[in-house]
Structure formats: structure tokens, C-alpha cells
Amino acid sequence: MSSSASEVAVEIRDTIAVVRLMRPAKRNALSDALMAEIDAAFAALPKSVGCAVLTGSGDHFSAGLDLSEIRERDAVEGLHHSRSWHRILGNLEFGRIPVVAALHGAVVGGGLELASSCHIRVADDTAFFALPEGSRGIFVGGGGSVRIPKLIGAHRMLDMMLTGRVYKAAEAVPLGFAQYHVPAGQALDKAIALAERIATNAPMTNYSLMHALPRIAEQPADHGYLTEGLISAIAQSAPEAKARVREFLEGRGPKVKA
User: Fold this and answer.
1) 133 tagged catalytic
2) pTM over 0.70
3) Beta strand 51-56 with 106-108: parallel, antiparallel or unpaired?
4) What is the pLDDT of residues 64-76, one digit of tens each?
5) CA 138 to CA 99: how far, in whole Å?
6) Options 3.30.70.3270, 3.90.180.10, 3.20.20.80, 1.10.12.10; which CATH number does 203-249 get?
């Protein structure tokens, strides 16, 4: 099943959804309208979907914020605009299901902020990463100053914004921009394969990983241990978890292989 809005297309493939940005003529620049459609698309995914893939149409994932929308924006409007992005990308990061980003071409500015709100990132050999806000007299506003340093480090992000440095796909995995690097044109196929695998997990385990793990990482150790204990107890009490453990103990469940 597939459906499309003016700037976002959603294709349902059994237990996964492929959500595609549809502004190729603008290199998928992120307008307010496009961001609202991304938010609406994820909110409307059916319960049967266990994982989503986010990608861009055309030659690029996203070249960032649509700068035409900020020319006449005052400080108050800018604050509310930034907070709206925080809400939308927060919904993506802490939503119901994991999101795999398939990255190609420009992953720039707001596009990198969008990618950093996803849980797994696959970069093909055409992908490049940049934060040109410094040269444009602006600052990241979509949560990038919080999320991106956790991936690549604060000083690497500082360098990118001060100097306009661009990183290529070959550097994506070693530096933390992505977890997977694939040949040109293969990011979407790899992301779909990962999403199909993720969708087979117990839903409560996926939810726990998305919601608890990032927060535990920021908690003091004694708080983290308590949070871990609570989430572990909740996850293992789910009926599906009990069924999977029983299958494993009876020799019917999958085993880890090298």
C-alpha cells in the first residue's frame, strides 16, 4: 500500500514503512510544510508497522533548512520555529517505532539534524555531511546542538560550523555520522533490510531501546542502574518476550552465529 502528500510519500511494505521526502527540485530542503508532513506521516503509520525507513527522493537526502522561510522572521518567530522542530524531531526520536535513515547526496544542516534524530543511519558513497550555518550567519535550531555532538563530538561539530568543513561518506562510520557505509545507490536497500530485521524484534524491546537507552546514558550510574532494572522487568514481562524465551529454551528459537 502506498500514499502520497504534496511533499512526503509513504509506502507500506508489510511490517515496515518507507517515508520519502518529495522535494527533489529543492534538494529536499526542509520547509515548515515539509516538517509538518513528516510529523503527520509518522503519526499516521498503522500499528502493523514495526520499523520505518526515512529517505529522500532525487539525488539528495536533504540539503537542510529552506532559507527562504527565515528572511523576514523575527526573534520570537525564530524561537517558535525552532521549538516546533524540537517537537517534530523529538516525536521521531522518541516515537513508537525505530527509524532507519537511508542517506545519499547532501546530508547538510537541517538534513543532518533530521538524520541525527533517527536511530540507525546508512550512508551510501555519494553522501556528504556539512553544517554550513556558520557561513550563513545562523545557528542550528532543530536540536542539532544536542544530538550531533553525541554522534561525532562537540569539537568536531564546532570545526564543521566554524570552517564549513565537509565530510565524505568514507568517513561516516569511523566518525559517527552513520553506522553503515554502502556503495552508491545501495543505501535504501540496506536500510530496508535492516528495518525488516528490526521489525521482527519484540515491540517492547524496540521501544525500551529507543526510549530508555539514550536516557540511561545521560543519567548518573546509580540512576541508570535503577532505570535499567525497571525497564528490563517491564520488557521481559511482555507476553511476546515470554513466548520467545520459551522457544529458545525449547530449542526452537534463533541462535547467535558469527
Assistant:
1) yes
2) yes
3) unpaired
4) 988 887 777 789 9
5) 28
6) 1.10.12.10
